[in-house]
Specification:
Elements (H helix, E strand, L loop, with lengths): L11 H22 L6 H14 L4 E3 L3 E3 L4 H8 L1 H19 L7 H10 L3 H9 L3 H4 L2 H30 L4 H31 L1 H5 L1 H19 L9 H8 L25 H27 L9
Antiparallel strand pairs: 1-2
Helix pairs in contact: 1-4, 1-5, 2-3, 2-4, 2-11, 2-13, 3-4, 3-6, 3-9, 4-5, 4-13, 5-8, 6-8, 8-9, 9-12, 11-13
Length: 305
């Protein structure tokens, strides 16, 4: 659902950038005030896992594909403010290293996928404070699946509104097109988020400081190295909708990313190239995330049992 450069123009870019900055600033404020800060290593590992999971495009109907957003998982694993910041880091690295999205629309993508899409997860976090609900693991995971599905739907609605306001696609056309495909993509989002959430709910993982960051980081590595080369090459939901209404425009980017389209330029084999790009991305995300995590919590390995 990453809006590419030049798809939306006019005031939509500065307005959404301003909203994104305000949202991240608010998240940072609440992160500082939080009494339950995740360890920097856990923050970096979860953020790396979300980056890797977004590389796994899966096919849906009508020759389209979708990928996990992951902000619901981030919010539940790290807490609301840290989940939002985690998602913003992923989106920034994707833009700057892989040309996934665009520099001028980074604020728009952060607004959609880090802020709007986080709303169901944040609400669920409050619901799960009820011990009767949080203690019922099947019910809890069912709510996680639903919240994840809803996060994808809300992000697609926000994207459709932006396309309509900018004049790229009429809102009357963009909204049903985006919803029709993202209602399905949200199912994949829910299943993947539920699976990862079940991993974090494992009692052994919850009680182990090492496993709480080692397991998501190892999972990210396996996804990037082994699974990402086999991700669906079909256009994602936004690309499908944009192509349907001739809203895709080729233009010179404002910033040339060094590893565009997740293909390492120093490797000719497509499988090795995709794997290498994924590992480079994980390394970049991990480095940025652990530095960010240390700002909020100087104890990198102190994980609450």
């Amino acid at each position: 659902m990453h809006i590419p450069e030049h798809m939306v123009n006019g005031p939509i870019c500065p307005v959404t950038a301003g909203l994104a900055i305000a949202g991240i600033a608010a998240a940072a404020f609440f992160a500082v005030k939080s009494k339950d800060k995740p360890a920097a290593l856990k923050f970096a590992a979860v953020t790396s896992l979300i980056f890797a999971a977004q590389m796994l495009n899966f096919p849906v109907l009508d020759g389209t594909s979708g990928h996990m957003i992951g902000v619901t998982l981030a919010v539940l694993a790290l807490g609301a403010p840290f989940g939002v910041i985690s998602m913003a880091i992923v989106l920034a690295v994707q833009t700057l290293l892989f040309a996934d999205g665009g520099l001028m629309v980074l604020g728009t993508n952060i607004l959609n996928m880090a802020l709007v899409a986080s709303i169901p997860g944040i609400i669920l976090g409050f619901i799960l404070k009820n011990e009767k609900i949080s203690g019922n693991i099947p019910l809890k995971l069912g709510l996680v699946v639903f919240a994840s599905w809803l996060s994808t739907v809300l992000a697609s609605i926000a994207c459709a509104v932006e396309l309509g306001v900018s004049g790229a696609i009429a809102l009357s056309a963009a909204l049903p097109a985006m919803l029709s495909v993202h209602l399905l993509i949200g199912i994949g989002e829910g299943i993947l988020t539920g699976a990862f959430a079940a991993m974090f709910e494992n009692r052994t993982v919850r009680r182990s400081a090492k496993l709480s960051f080692a397991l998501p980081l190892a999972s990210a590595g396996v996804i990037a190295l082994v699974l990402s080369p086999f991700a669906s090459a079909l256009p994602d939901g936004l690309e499908w909708a944009a192509a349907k209404f001739n809203a895709l425009h080729d233009a010179a980017p404002l910033f040339v990313a060094p590893i565009a389209d997740y293909a390492a330029p120093f490797l000719s084999d497509p499988v090795l190239s995709a794997s290498a790009a994924g590992l480079i991305g994980i390394a970049a995300v991990f480095a940025v995330s652990i530095l960010t995590g240390l700002i909020f919590n100087p104890k990198p390995a102190a994980v609450k049992a």
